[in-house]
């Protein structure tokens, strides 16, 4: 179960998307998130979906893997879909079975919101799947650079981010290990009645917290020992390299925005 | 209880880009009442085999027979509680699984999950704490207030309290001081004999394998390459070298002694005691013949 989760994972590769500059990718994602809200009709949502699939294709990450890894997200998606279907009361009545009434507008909204959600999740996942946590942090640090003037601790924020991203897989592995150890002691979170499953959470979470705190302490010590003193005057080993593809990707995005605006109802 | 692995194959994260093959065509028979050591170089698949022994991992190919229960690749296995009660696993660094308020409650956690009544579970906890050489006061303490070595013992007690028929040990003494190692390994061996347990020891330590096991299996690159008695496995230095393993210290010393003294000892020495005895015998014989 754990090994299929893909949040915060990075799959090394050398597709065009992998080779893009992290600054370009991060800006791309943020602008894209804004652009998504331009869409308001079947055509525009269709364009968004098509564009997203194109990006997935270019990243050479198998769609099946992506969908499989985002299963937990789909539960949320289905939930919101049904919320919209049941609670929107506009447009023509499509279906009426006693206590459930489904309206045209509800169905429309449900589908649109789901597509919007899906597109956002896909694009952001592609960002983390194709960019190593270190490059993401480097990118964010540079992009937030201007805010240093207003005393925003940019370097520290970037560091915190990279540490959390770095430790997601580690904590996942650890969860798996503790889960197995407790399963061997007869406490199984994956089966049995709901009450038993909830009870099985405690033996899992406590050891996990204990080890997470221990890890944090060890990490702090290790950084201290190596003379870490924050971002002041720190030079970079990895240099970022803005290339033609990066400019092109932002141009494409502008084109997409224009198209969405044009087809908007 | 017999455990039989038949042509078992296992891949981690199957059908994802992270897929990684860990086992290929592993066949291994662990007879009831035996003490089997599984040895192998780092990354040879030892720990993966171990997790098949109580169905924490299900084979992606082949099948595993645990007692009467058959777990087959591609077949959904339900209700594995019985299997897991009968096969207890002491994982590497088992102190990571401690969680309860007191040591007593933590040790009772396993047996009570399997429906052992509270008094009985508590009785076992008291008994085990004594057997493991811990002072009885620890029972009321929080497991997180104990020293590393004590935590290890408490965690081991937590597994033993389930009174499994098969005890699987994954490097149970890693990170302990030499005396603690010896005490814990001796305890496992005593339990093995007293309770007629079937014991499986996964270890890096050739010395432990030589001293305690009556059967040895070598894992290499996800294959189970050799199984046999410790005498034959450890006397074949060439074969051990092929799998990047070294014979135990006692045998290395025996070989050096033989080369220096120009005498061949009568038997292979799996323990320090045996080595001392073999050398003494050889020396006596040498004096008699003079």
From TrEMBL, chain A:
Identify the InterPro entries for this entry: ABC/ECF_trnsptr_transmembrane, EcfT
- Quote the subcellular location field of this record: Cell membrane
**First-listed, main subcellular location of the protein, grouped into a coarse class:** membrane
User: What are the entry keywords?
Assistant: Cell membrane, Membrane, Transmembrane, Transmembrane helix, Transport
Q: Does the keyword Nuclease apply?
A: no
* A Pfam family annotated for this UniProt entry: CbiQ
Q: How does it sit in the membrane?
A: Multi-pass membrane protein
Its transmembrane ranges are 28-58, 65-87, 107-129, 244-263
Record's subunit section: Forms a stable energy-coupling factor (ECF) transporter complex composed of 2 membrane-embedded substrate-binding proteins (S component), 2 ATP-binding proteins (A component) and 2 transmembrane proteins (T component).
- Function summary: Transmembrane (T) component of an energy-coupling factor (ECF) ABC-transporter complex. Unlike classic ABC transporters this ECF transporter provides the energy necessary to transport a number of different substrates.
* Listed HAMAP family: EcfT
Family according to the record: Belongs to the energy-coupling factor EcfT family.
Full protein name: Energy-coupling factor transporter transmembrane protein EcfT
Source organism of the structure: Planomicrobium stackebrandtii
Automatic annotation (TrEMBL), chain B:
Lineage: superkingdom: Bacteria
Main EC class the enzyme belongs to:
translocase
Please report the record's description of how this protein sits within the membrane: Peripheral membrane protein
Does the keyword tRNA processing feature in the UniProt annotation? no
Tell me the InterPro entries matching this sequence: AAA+_ATPase, ABC_transporter-like_ATP-bd, ABC_transporter-like_CS, ABC_transpr_CbiO/EcfA_su, ECF_ABC_transporter_ATP-bd, EcfA2, P-loop_NTPase
Q: What are the GO MF terms of this UniProt record?
A: ATP binding; hydrolase activity
Give the EC number: 7.-.-.-
* Entry annotated with the keyword Nucleotide-binding: yes
Keywords, alphabetical: ATP-binding, Cell membrane, Hydrolase, Membrane, Nucleotide-binding, Translocase, Transport
Q: Where in the cell is it found?
A: Cell membrane
Q: Which residues form the ABC transporter domain?
A: 3-246
The similarity annotation says: Belongs to the ABC transporter superfamily. Energy-coupling factor EcfA family.
| Function of the molecule | ATP-binding (A) component of a common energy-coupling factor (ECF) ABC-transporter complex.
Q: How does it assemble?
A: Forms a stable energy-coupling factor (ECF) transporter complex composed of 2 membrane-embedded substrate-binding proteins (S component), 2 ATP-binding proteins (A component) and 2 transmembrane proteins (T component).
The protein depicted here goes by the name Energy-coupling factor transporter ATP-binding protein EcfA2
Write down the species: Planomicrobium stackebrandtii
């Amino acid at each position: 179960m754990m090994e299929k989760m893909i949040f915060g994972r990075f799959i090394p590769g050398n597709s065009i998307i992998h080779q893009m500059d992290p600054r370009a990718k991060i800006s791309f994602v943020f602008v894209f998130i804004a652009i998504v809200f331009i869409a308001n009709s079947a055509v525009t949502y269709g364009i968004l979906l098509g564009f997203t699939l194109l990006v997935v294709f270019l990243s050479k990450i198998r769609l099946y893997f992506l969908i499989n890894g985002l299963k937990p997200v789909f539960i949320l998606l289905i939930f919101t879909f049904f919320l919209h279907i049941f609670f929107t009361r506009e447009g023509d009545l499509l279906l009426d079975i006693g206590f459930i009434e489904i309206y045209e507008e509800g169905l429309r909204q449900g589908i649109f919101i789901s597509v919007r959600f899906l597109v956002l999740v896909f694009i952001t996942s592609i960002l983390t799947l194709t960019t190593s946590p270190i490059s993401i942090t480097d990118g964010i640090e540079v992009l937030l650079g201007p805010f240093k003037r207003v005393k925003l601790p940019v370097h520290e924020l970037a560091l915190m981010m990279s540490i959390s991203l770095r430790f997601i897989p580690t904590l996942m592995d650890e969860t798996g290990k503790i889960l197995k150890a407790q399963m061997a002691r007869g406490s199984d979170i994956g089966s049995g009645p709901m009450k038993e499953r909830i009870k099985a959470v405690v033996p899992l979470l406590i050891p996990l917290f204990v080890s997470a705190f221990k890890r944090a302490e060890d990490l702090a010590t290790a950084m201290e020992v190596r003379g870490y003193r924050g971002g002041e005057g720190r030079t970079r080993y990895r240099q970022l390299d803005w290339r033609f593809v990066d400019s092109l990707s932002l141009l494409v995005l502008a084109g997409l925005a224009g198209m969405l605006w044009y087809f908007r109802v | 209880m017999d455990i039989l692995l038949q042509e078992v194959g296992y891949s981690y994260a199957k059908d994802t880009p992270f897929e990684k093959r860990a086992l290929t065509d592993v066949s291994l028979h662990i007879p009831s009442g035996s003490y089997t050591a599984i040895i192998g170089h780092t990354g040879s698949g030892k720990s993966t085999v171990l997790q098949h022994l109580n169905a924490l991992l299900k084979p992606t190919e082949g099948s595993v027979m645990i007692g009467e229960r058959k777990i087959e690749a591609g077949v959904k296995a339900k209700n594995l509680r019985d299997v897991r009660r009968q096969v207890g696993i002491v994982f590497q660094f088992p102190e990571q699984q401690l969680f309860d308020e007191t040591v007593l409650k933590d040790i009772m956690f396993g047996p009570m999950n399997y429906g052992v009544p509270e008094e009985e579970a508590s009785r076992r906890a008291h008994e085990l704490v004594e057997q493991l050489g811990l002072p009885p006061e620890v029972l009321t303490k929080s497991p997180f207030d104990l020293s590393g070595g004590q935590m290890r013992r408490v965690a081991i007690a937590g597994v033993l309290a389930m009174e499994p028929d098969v005890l699987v040990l994954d490097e149970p003494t890693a990170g302990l001081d030499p005396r603690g190692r010896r005490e814990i390994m001796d305890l496992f061996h005593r339990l093995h004999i007293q309770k007629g347990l079937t014991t499986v020891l996964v270890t890096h330590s050739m010395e432990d394998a030589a001293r305690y096991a009556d059967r040895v299996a070598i894992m290499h690159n996800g294959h189970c390459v050799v199984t046999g008695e410790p005498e034959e496995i450890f006397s074949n230095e060439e074969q051990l070298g092929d799998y990047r393993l070294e014979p135990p210290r006692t045998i290395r010393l025996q070989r050096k002694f033989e080369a220096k003294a120009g005498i061949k000892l009568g038997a292979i020495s799996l323990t320090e005691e045996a080595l001392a005895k073999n050398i003494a015998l050889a020396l006596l014989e040498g004096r008699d013949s003079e």
